[in-house]
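[stage:ingest] chain + small molecule (pyridoxal-5'-phosphate)
[stage:ingest] validated
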Amino acid sequence: MNFIPHSKPTVGKAEADAVAEVIRSSMLAQGQRVDEFERLFAQRFELGQAVAVGSGTAGLHLALLALGVGPGDDVIIPSFVCTALLNAVCYVGAQANVADIRLDTFNIDPVDVRKRITARTKAIIVPHMFGQAADLRGLKDIGLPIIEDCAQAVGARYAKRPVGSFGDLSVFSFYATKVMTTGEGGMVSSHDPFLIEKVRDARAYDNRSEYSIRFNYKMTDIQAAMGIVQLERLKSFLKKRKTLADTYTALFLEESDSRLSLPLGVEEHTYFRYVVRIERNIGKICENLRDLAFGTARPVFKPIHRYLTREGFPKTDQAWETTISLPIYPELKIEDVKRIAKAFIGQLE
Ligand SMILES: *Cc1c(COP(=O)(O)O)cnc(C)c1O
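[stage:predict] done
[stage:export] tokens:
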């Protein structure tokens, strides 16, 4: 039986042609394709202005710098997320102030955030986990600057508007296995011309009359050419993901009982990940499923508070111990989903 990987990019001839055209033009670095990608991306998601960067992590770094976050400050981030957020906070010399999540959405919990605010808190980074928007209303009410981390949620919506259009700054990632990809890459956006100018200025170092610390965080035209094609295909990607997710959900509802907590199935979920929670530790189940020829993963490799050896994050601990991410990507077949769902339910016996 063919092994079904946990995640897989959807790229083909259209991307190859667009990239080949850039290569033949000999204009490889940041240029017209990047300008065009930024413009199309900002328009599509109502983002104000957008600045393309080399990765989502670079984007988070520049967003924190634009807000003036530095040594002596702290930044609130959720625990149930990858270490990219912790890295960005450390890059600017600030402290990570870690918050717990809500178990129904796996997103940062505004109620817990309020308890952790200090006099030094300068911003909240809000990832929309697995393709479902966080509680932006509850978070914005707090009144601190918000960086939306849309790395997993391109195309997702909240209150009828695209995610990324709410934050003081927003960051996207186009890493290979994200919903749309440029291999590596990212985007920062803002409706505030002053903030976005700071991001644009810090992205590149060349030809400046005065010195200040700047970075080489540029995207290449090669990547942007691919991004433009992926953006055109995004709608079809999201449609396919939704169909696959609905198939999983229907099969699980049919065959199983209260042993499984399924995604809420909100209309605007984009299913970057199909994450299920079960009533026991998933470690062994992941191993068994690998033997049955498909890949699964913990949706978060290890929570931030565990790296920092902090305690008091019960929801994150529970999510980490009991959630599993099943394969979902546009090239996955309905038959694959059926096979995976059946094998997974078999493991619950
Ligand atoms: C992938 C990801 C990032 C980092 O993006 P890179 O492009 O890999 O640097 C940041 N935040 C979240 C939530 C992610 O999923």
